[in-house]
């Protein structure tokens, strides 16, 4: 049966989910604690970095992206690239006005 | 003969196709939130002190509480799907109900939070808000728009998950066919991810 290979049928243990949840809560605590820490006068760096780690964990484990076929990862990658291009376009526009 | 007739009558299922459709939809959702995010980035860059001052007026404790609530709801959502896969209908229903409950509590907190702001006359285009500096007006405009748009997504999620609860109760979602619940879960997790970004951007400017 190809069902066994189908990612939809891979049952990730409850315990793994609970561990991911605890790490997510710990990262929330961390981001609140260190908010205000400056990196070269920029305070947004650490909060965005931690948010991205949290988002990656939700994507990988809760949304099963880790266990999906490459095509799904490609969709995310294309989305991120478009996002990056948008950021660059907007900031080059704002910066050189 | 009878067997083949029965098999062709069976509904065609394409799990991968369904999930690709969902992920494509979620991508469009991401870009819906990228708009306000870019506006935020540009105006925070332009009015750093105003954003700093305006953010100090937000209720950090409620922000943290809502973050914990949504992260926990993501856990119960994932557990609900895992339970369905294992064929445990009761447990799946319990986790789904908890997820819906967390969504409603999140909205209740949002109501309290917005209510306090509106009571102080702070809402888009209000007389009290327009007396503030430009950056603060923009901050609160973005705050109400982004959290409002996110709140609508939570509301949509609560309704969607309620429909899923009915489908589970009716036995339409079971270990052999749970793609609807799985896609609903994907939507719920995405709404959680949006909040993961909104929280530090609005509440944690120090």
Characteristic key phrases:
heterodimer, A: 97 residues, mainly alpha, 66% helix, B: 206 residues, 8 helices
Please provide the ordered H/E string of secondary-structure elements of chain B.
Answer: HHHHHHHH
Major pleated sheet of chain B = none
Helical residue percent band of chain B:
over 70%
CATH superfamily of chain B: Cytochrome c oxidase, subunit III, four-helix bundle
Give start-end ranges of low-pLDDT stretches of chain B.
none
Can you describe this structure?
The complex is a heterodimer of chains A (97) and B (206). Chain A is built from 3 helices and no strands. Chain A is flat. By secondary structure, chain A is mainly α. Chain A has a domain at 2-68. Chain A is 66% helix and 0% strand. In chain A, helix 1 (14-33) packs antiparallel against helix 2. Chain A has helices spanning 14-33, 45-62, 70-95. With 206 residues, chain B is mainly α. Chain B has a single domain (16-203), classed as Four Helix Bundle (Hemerythrin (Met), subunit A) (Up-down Bundle). Chain B is 83% helix and 0% strand. Chain B is built from 8 helices and no strands. Chain B has helices spanning 2-9, 15-46, 48-56, 60-85, 89-119, 127-130, 134-169, 179-203. In chain B, helix 3 packs across helix 7, helix 4 (60-85) runs antiparallel to helix 5 and helix 5 (89-119) runs antiparallel to helix 7 (134-169). The longest helix of chain B is centred in the last third of the chain and has 36 residues, at 134-169. The model of chain B has no long low-confidence stretch (mean pLDDT 92). Chains A and B meet through helix 1, helix 2 and helix 3 of A and helix 2, helix 4 and helix 8 of B.
């Amino acid at each position: 049966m190809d069902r066994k290979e189908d990612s939809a049928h891979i049952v990730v243990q409850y315990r793994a989910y609970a561990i991911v949840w605890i790490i997510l809560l710990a990262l929330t605590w961390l981001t609140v604690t260190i908010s205000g820490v400056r990196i070269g006068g920029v305070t947004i760096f650490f909060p965005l970095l931690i948010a991205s780690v949290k988002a990656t964990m939700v994507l990988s484990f809760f949304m099963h992206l880790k266990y999906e076929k490459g095509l799904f990862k490609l969709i995310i990658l294309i989305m991120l690239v478009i996002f990056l291009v948008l950021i660059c376009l907007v900031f080059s526009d704002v910066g050189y006005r | 003969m009878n067997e083949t007739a029965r098999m062709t009558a069976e509904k065609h299922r394409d799990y991968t196709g369904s999930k690709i459709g969902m992920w494509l939809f979620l991508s469009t959702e991401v870009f819906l939130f990228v708009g306000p995010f870019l506006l935020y980035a540009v105006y925070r860059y332009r009015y750093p002190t105003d954003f700093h001052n305006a953010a100090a007026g937000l209720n950090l404790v409620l922000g943290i509480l809502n973050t914990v609530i949504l992260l926990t709801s993501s856990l119960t959502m994932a557990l609900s799907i895992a339970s369905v896969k294992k064929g445990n209908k009761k447990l799946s229903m319990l986790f789904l109900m908890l997820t819906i409950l967390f969504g409603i509590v999140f909205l209740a907190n949002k109501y309290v939070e917005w209510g306090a702001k509106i009571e102080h006359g702070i809402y888009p285009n209000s007389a009290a808000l327009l007396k503030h500096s430009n950056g603060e007006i923009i901050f609160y405009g973005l705050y109400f728009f982004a959290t409002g748009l996110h709140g609508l997504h939570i509301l949509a999620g609560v309704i969607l998950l309620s429909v899923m609860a009915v489908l589970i109760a009716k036995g339409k979602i079971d270990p052999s066919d749970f793609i609807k619940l799985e896609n609903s879960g994907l939507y719920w997790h995405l709404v959680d991810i949006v909040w993961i970004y909104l929280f530090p951007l609005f509440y944690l400017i120090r």
